């Protein structure tokens, strides 16, 4: 009976050892898979870091371009304001010239009227002088 128990114990030990070996093989395979997955994750992270750096560089370039566009817009706005001021000056000068021309027209009309009056007076004076006879 002791021999049977020793054989049964040996069989159970062998079975347990086989089960432990299977568990160790499964654990080893799972560990290898985890290592492989971790390596893939590491590569993905490195790629993402490189892509992020590239995006960051592009954003910096875009930011610089936006600043340049804003500066150009400011320059255009300033130029437009200056042109508006010049146009206003021209408008004021044109108004002054128009007013001067209107005054010249009025003065011309007055001068023409005065010249007509003077011509009439001259005609009367000639008629009056013609009435006198020199002996």
Q: Biggest β-sheet, characterized?
A: none
Count of separate DSSP helical elements: 1
Number of strands: 0
Which secondary-structure class do the elements indicate?
mainly alpha
Helix content: over 70%
Assign an overall shape.
rod-shaped
Mean of pLDDT: 92
Query: What is the succession of H and E elements?
Result: H
The radius of gyration computed from the alpha-carbon positions, rounded to a whole number of angstroms, is 57 Å
Q: Which strand-content bin applies to the residues?
A: under 5%
Report the end-to-end length measured between terminal Cα atoms.
198 Å
Give start-end ranges of low-pLDDT stretches.
none
Q: Can you put this structure into words, describing what you see?
A:
By secondary structure, this protein is an all-alpha fold. Helix content is 96%, strand content 0%. The protein has 1 helix and no strands. The radius of gyration is 57 Å and the shape is rod-shaped. The termini are far apart.
Task: Offer a quick outline of the entry.
Helix content is 96%, strand content 0%.
List keywords for this structure.
mainly alpha; 96% helix; 135 residues
Strand and helix layout:
Layout: H1 2-131
